[in-house]
Amino acid sequence: MKWIVGLGNPGEEYEKTRHNIGFQVVDLLAKEWSIPMRASKWQALIGEAKKEGERILLTKPLTYMNRSGDAVRKIMDWYKLSCDDLLVIYDDLDLPVGNLRLREKGSAGGHNGMKSIIQQLGTEQFKRIRVGIGHPPAGASVPEYVLSPFEKEEKEKVDAGIKLAAQAANAWLSLPFPQVMNRFNRKSE
Question: Is 19 a catalytic residue?
Answer without folding.
Answer: yes
